[in-house]
UniProtKB/TrEMBL annotation, chain A:
It comes from Kordiimonas lacus. This is dihydrouracil dehydrogenase (NAD(+)). Residues 144-434 form the FAD/NAD(P)-binding domain. Residues 21-129 form the Dihydroprymidine dehydrogenase domain. Heterotetramer of 2 PreA and 2 PreT subunits.
From TrEMBL, chain B:
It comes from the Bacteria. It catalyses: 5,6-dihydrothymine + NAD(+) = thymine + NADH + H(+); 5,6-dihydrouracil + NAD(+) = uracil + NADH + H(+). One of its GO terms (molecular function) is iron-sulfur cluster binding. Its EC number is 1.3.1.1. Residues 336-365, 374-403 form the 4Fe-4S ferredoxin-type domain. This is dihydrouracil dehydrogenase (NAD(+)). It comes from Kordiimonas lacus. PANTHER family: DIHYDROPYRIMIDINE DEHYDROGENASE [NADP(+)] (PTHR43073:SF2). Involved in pyrimidine base degradation. Catalyzes physiologically the reduction of uracil to 5,6-dihydrouracil (DHU) by using NADH as a specific cosubstrate. It also catalyzes the reverse reaction and the reduction of thymine to 5,6-dihydrothymine (DHT). It is an enzyme of class 1 (oxidoreductase). Belongs to the dihydropyrimidine dehydrogenase family.
Length: 447, 424
């Protein structure tokens, strides 16, 4: 059951209402009845494989059992005790390669339990109910921690550290908290301002202060933070993007997909967003898919996603690729960009066919080219660490190096999330990193 | 197609499926709909002396599983709350319009000979095929000295049964309450009183749930609740045992059985017949799904019989009775072991944790090199309890395999470890 958008075609553009509808929930939330049925499909496995498959190790069989006994609030607490952003993860996790892929129901050629939707059911229930924050803080430790970046890694670290009794100050460059939850995830995954609602919920624990407009390397320095705070956690994500390295990359209409998505997320009336008529998206990851599908949702008539290798090499999950195809995105494989044409504004792009060189396993251009007319190009060829503010930190393979326990090469400085190499670059991994780093910091502060 | 006709207490019925005395048989309208749907007979909702009883509002309680599936229901309704005459006229009319269907008149009265006899004669005159004595209602009526208040005292069971035998020349069914310590005492009493058949079970005394907001048992009647009669799927095991006890006791030989209690489908029906039932009665299943369920009961039972080569109900009636024995007659040398089919196993681990925590630590759990999990029975430790096979979510994945150990049939009284035997 894949989300089907209203598509624009034949020169007819979408109405404002159609665009708004396209940005409704990707997956409809479960009703109580649907939740009971979905929960009933869970076998309540012992030492369940889904728990291992979840980067934050949520006790999935237990929370589903709690939904069955109508202890929905207890279910939410089971989830949130391991993953304070269980709400976002329920919406954004690629469950088809995480928990749901490990569900034993798959062995019986059955559909896996809808773990993501059940998780959302429970967490939404608790958040809608409001009232007291579900977790209590340990007695004040008197220790102060600085967190840089209010994304999932930073906020998860802040929440856990606050629970452990510490006082946390979060420094965030942007005007809003949430990191890519607020600025990056596809809009139809995070409807109704969920990112901000979740931040408010998380802050309910107390002991956390967020300072916006505070960029490390500009407004504050690492040295200052190390001097003032008992420990520092860096959750700065990947602030820079890769370039195509082609002439004409600065032409009008050629944008970073990340920037396009950020603008889209911040636009409250999506119909005000400008989108091309023929959009070309370059890349093979989930960012490329999100940029392509959301372009269609805005009313782009033709969207072509170009990736230089085969489908199996794409880092986007099968579900995401399917979502793109269902929504009319043309996926063009084995082609790489070679030229951008246009007079001030992009008018077309030239691609060269690629192939695998069987002998040494490298990708080579075949010399054969084709041209695609386009008025908007979205580059989604990867993000990278912006190392400018990270003086004195050891980096490796373009990321901050960390030891076991998320300690960096500088004493008292810890890091997690996309800016380190832990697991995949996913929200759920960032949350786990932040949580584990908070425990490591707690140990560090004890000595 | 197998012949489903049956005879009980001398009454011929086109099939063994009757509706038990309860709301489904409360009036002409329901009963006609039931006959149209294919039910072979009905036991009319219990009749009492005028003036009719008055019921409360909020009458049924439910015992549900997590998916709203109904395990059982209970009720605090009394007997028919319509004037006797209205009921009797409707019975007469239905009898005329449906000559091939059975109508039994159910009745109860205070413990007074004249009251029982007069009411029985009035009911007999309406043309019923037989009379059923309701000695089981476990709520309300018993507080007035009727229903289970009579059914729980064997002497009164015998007495009321005899009064009806003396009063009318019709087959008499004595309906028993399960709210007693030994069903044989009331069954024997009914037999002594001259009953042609016993009907069992009536409902089981119960509180199905407590409303935790109202802090009252359900059904809640203006903030308070009372115990009520439990029925439906949950009571089938209790009913099966009581039917079997009567069927295999020497003292109740010849007493016919109209089996009631949790019959929802053809399989339940076949089980009761295998344990000796001559006829069947259904209430809750009809209340939950409507009269149409009789279709599957008829078709399913007849398929089953065709498959097994049974031409009539008599061909398999009571076939399981001889295999229903006391524990002391079981073979102590029989050995069965669980076997988990690795091809069917989906690796949920439920069998492992059940056996590990609560049984005999006989299922080994290992994670293989490829990350897949394996669950294997250790034969030496398995006692053959069946727990793992019962909870396994995959059909036929865990099989209980009898071990061919070559040992003779040996009962506990013959067993060398039996201290009584050693004392001999
Ligand atoms: C378009 C897109 C779609 C995605 N979709 C999914 C998805 O569907 N599911 C999924 O699981 N993952 C998805 N991801 C990945 C996921 O968003 C990231 O893995 C996750 O957000 C990483 O969290 P983080 O806290 O490490 O970094 P971020 O979320 O990037 O947060 C870093 C924060 O640090 C701040 N910051 C950066 N530099 C500084 C500085 N110098 N000073 C102060 N503050 C600074 C930033 O403003 C930001 O708020 C997606 C990513 C992108 C780009
Ligand atoms: C609402 C209700 C009312 C009942 N009323 C009577 C009654 O008036 N007389 C009677 O003999 N049994 C009465 N019973 C008991 C049923 O006839 C039957 O014995 C019992 O429900 C068990 O069968 P079942 O599991 O098929 O429902 C009643 C049961 C229910 C649910
Ligand atoms: S039959 Fe009982 S003892 Fe044997 S393996 Fe299964 S649960 Fe364990």
């Amino acid at each position: 059951m894949t989300h089907k958008l209203c598509g624009a075609a034949g020169g007819v553009s979408l109405s404002d209402d159609e665009i708004a509808a396209n940005f409704g929930d990707l997956h409809k939330p479960l009703s109580q009845l649907q939740a009971m049925q979905a929960a009933d499909h869970c076998i309540y496995c012992y030492d369940a494989p889904c728990i291992t498959a979840c980067p934050t190790s949520i006790d999935i069989p237990t929370f589903i059992h709690q939904i069955r006994t109508r202890n929905t609030e207890g279910a939410a607490k089971t989830i949130l005790s391991q993953n304070i952003m269980g709400g976002t993860c329920a919406r954004a996790c690629p469950t088809e390669v995480l928990c749901e892929q490990a569900c034993v129901r798959n062995h019986g050629d059955e559909e896996p339990v809808e773990i993501g939707l059940l998780q959302r059911f429970a967490v939404d229930h608790l958040m809608a109910k409001g009232g007291e924050h579900p977790f209590k803080r340990a007695p004040e430790s008197g220790k102060r921690i600085a967190v840089v970046g209010a994304g999932p890694a930073g906020l998860s670290c802040a929440h856990r550290a606050a629970m452990l009794g510490h006082n946390v100050t979060v420094f965030e460059a942007k005007p809003k908290s949430g990191g890519l939850n607020e600025y990056g995830l596809a809009a139809y995954k995070m409807v109704d301002d969920f990112a901000q609602r979740e931040v408010d919920f998380l802050m309910g624990v107390g002991g956390i202060e967020i300072k916006h407009g505070q960029a490390l390397g500009k407004d504050i320095s690492l040295r200052e933070l190390r001097d003032t705070y008992g420990a520092v956690f860096l959750g700065v994500g990947l602030g820079d993007t890769n370039k195509l390295g082609l002439d004409g990359e600065d032409k009008g209409g050629v944008l970073d997909a990340i920037q396009f998505i950020e603008d889209l997320r911040q636009e409250s009336n999506k119909a005000h967003m400008k989108v091309g008529k023929h959009v070309v998206v370059i890349g093979g990851g989930n960012t490329a898919i999100d940029a392509a599908v959301q372009s269609r949702a805005l009313g782009a008539e033709k969207v072509t996603l170009v990736y230089r290798r085969g489908e199996e090499a794409m880092s986007a999950t099968g579900f995401e690729i399917e979502l793109a195809r269902t929504n009319g995105v043309t996926v063009e494989l084995w082609a790489q960009p070679v030229a951008i044409h246009g007079n001030g504004h992009v008018a077309s792009m030239v691609f060269e066919r690629t192939a695998m060189d069987e002998k040494n396993g490298t990708l080579v251009g075949t010399g054969e080219t084709f041209e695609v007319r386009t008025d908007m190009v979205l580059k989604a060829i990867g993000q990278k660490l912006d190392g400018s503010a990270l003086d004195g930190l050891d980096l490796a393979a373009g990321k901050v190096s960390v030891l076991d326990g998320y300690a960096t090469s500088l004493t008292g400085v810890f890091a997690g999330g996309d800016c380190v190499k832990s697991g995949e670059d996913l929200t759920v991994q960032a949350v786990e990193d932040g949580k584990q780093a908070a425990h490591a910091i707690d140990e560090f502060l004890k000595v | 197609m197998a012949d489903l006709s049956c005879k009980i207490a001398g009454i011929d019925s086109i099939n063994p499926f009757w509706l038990a005395s309860a709301p489904p048989t409360d009036k002409y309208y329901n009963v006609v709909r039931a006959f149209e749907a294919g039910w072979g007979g009905v036991v009319w909702k219990t009749l009492g002396e005028d003036p009719p009883v008055v019921n409360v509002s909020s009458r049924y309680g439910v015992h549900q599983d997590a998916d709203r599936g109904i395990i059982g229901i209970n009720n605090i309704e009394l007997i028919s709350d319509r004037p006797l005459d209205v009921n009797l006229r409707e019975i007469e009319q239905t009898r005329k319009e449906w000559p091939d269907r059975v109508i039994i008149g159910s009745m109860m009265a205070p413990i007074d000979e004249q009251a029982w006899k007069e009411l029985a004669i009035k009911i007999a005159n309406s043309g019923v095929h037989g009379i059923e004595l309701n000695l089981g209602c476990p709520h309300g009526m018993c507080e007035r000295g009727m229903g289970s208040a009579i059914g729980q005292v064997p002497e009164m069971v015998e007495q009321t049964t005899r009064w009806i035998r003396e009063a009318v020349d019709l087959p008499v069914f004595t309906k028993l309450t399960p709210n007693i310590t030994n069903i044989l005492w009331s069954a024997e009493a009914a037999k002594k009183g001259g009953a042609h058949a016993v009907s069992l079970i009536n409902t089981v005394n119960s509180i199905v749930s407590v409303d935790l907001d109202a802090m009252s048992p359900t059904p809640v009647v203006d903030g308070k609740g009372s115990h009520g009669g439990y029925c439906g799927a949950a009571v089938k095991p209790i009913a099966l045992n009581m039917v079997a006890e009567i069927a295999r006791s020497a003292d109740t030989q010849g007493l016919e059985i109209s089996a009631i209690g949790g019959i929802e489908n053809w399989r339940d029906a076949a089980e009761f017949i295998a344990l000796g039932a001559n006829g069947l009665q259904v209430c809750t299943a009809a209340m939950l799904y409507g009269f149409r369920i009789v279709d599957d009961m008829i078709a399913g039972l007849s398929n089953f019989m065709d498959e097994k080569g049974y031409k009539t109900l008599e061909d398999f009636r009571g076939k399981a009775v001889e295999n229903t024995v006391d524990w002391n007659a079981l073979n102590m040398n029989f050995d069965t072991k669980a076997f988990i089919d690795p091809d069917k196993c989906i690796e949920c681990g439920r069998c492992h944790i059940a056996c590990e925590d609560t049984s005999h630590q006989a299922i080994e759990y290992a994670v293989k090199e490829d990350g897949r999990r394996s669950f294997t029975v250790v034969d030496e430790d398995c006692v053959g309890c069946n727990l793992c096979a019962m909870i396994c979510p995959v059909p036929d994945c865990i099989e209980m395999r009898p071990v061919d150990n070559g040992k003779p049939y040996m009962t506990w009284p013959e067993h060398p470890l039996n201290p009584m035997k050693a004392a001999e």
